[in-house]
Specification:
62% helix, 229 residues, 10 helices
Length: 229
């Protein structure tokens, strides 16, 4: 998302007022949640992530990332099938099968020659023509939309962690997964710190464009503006 946001810096012909009214009618509410998330991150989540990143050896961090990436491939495969991408589904299912068995429950990525895909139910809904709906900032989880928020809930039915019956183990896995994701953003977030623009709008526009790109597998239709002839 942060990398995609760099591309937005060059966009100067967008009618931001109309764009905001259409995509972010809940802006006042969203900004409040965004401030809450930012304060929570600065006070708790980021310091813990920095400590984890400093103390835990790199090989261990890699294995943790591989483990959660393998669990994510289960959800990806399910959404491949729902989008009728059967060849991609076969590839992602193979990743799960080989990494879970020969890769010791996904700790070792032995299928690095197979492309890692990014599919979720929010993208599946978009694939079948469901519009994204208004932008929505979720507590703790961050940027989303009405469609993507619905997708998060639906993906939980395919998620190995969500279907874990042991509550302490499930909650611990969620916490570690979130920590792993936050560590991955430590370097990239410097882009936001150096950006001389509205941080909230920066993240919102980057998120919406990134999700649009994912729905169309990197080739979204060109958006037309009022001054186009």
């Amino acid at each position: 998302m942060l990398l995609a946001s760099l591309l937005l810096a060059g966009c100067s012909s967008i009618n931001l007022s109309a764009y905001t009214q259409e995509k972010d009618p809940f802006e006042s509410f969203n900004r409040g949640v965004d401030k809450f998330n930012d304060k929570l991150d600065r006070a708790v989540i980021k310091p813990v992530a920095q400590g984890y990143n400093k103390v835990v050896p790199s090989p261990v961090k890699t294995m943790v990332s591989n483990f959660f990436s393998n669990l994510d491939d289960v959800v990806v495969t399910a959404n491949d099938i729902l989008q009728l991408k059967f060849r991609q589904a076969a590839s992602d299912a193979a990743r799960v099968a080989f990494n879970t068995t020969f890769g010791i429950f996904g700790l070792i990525n032995i299928t690095d020659r197979l492309e890692k895909h990014n599919e979720d139910f929010g993208q599946t809904l978009g694939y079948w023509g469901v519009p994204s709906g208004p932008y929505l900032v979720l507590p703790i989880l961050g940027p989303s939309t009405i469609r993507d928020g619905t997708g998060l809930y639906t993906d939980s039915y395919f998620s190995v962690i969500s279907n874990t019956k042991n509550v302490p183990a499930r909650n611990s896995a969620w916490a570690l997964e979130g920590l792993d994701m936050r560590v991955g953003l430590l370097e990239q977030e410097k882009v936001l710190d150096d950006a001389i623009i509205d941080r909230y709008s920066f993240i919102r526009d980057a998120y919406l464009q990134h999700r649009q790109s994912l729905v169309y597998d990197g080739n979204p239709p060109r958006q037309k503006f009022d001054d186009d002839n």
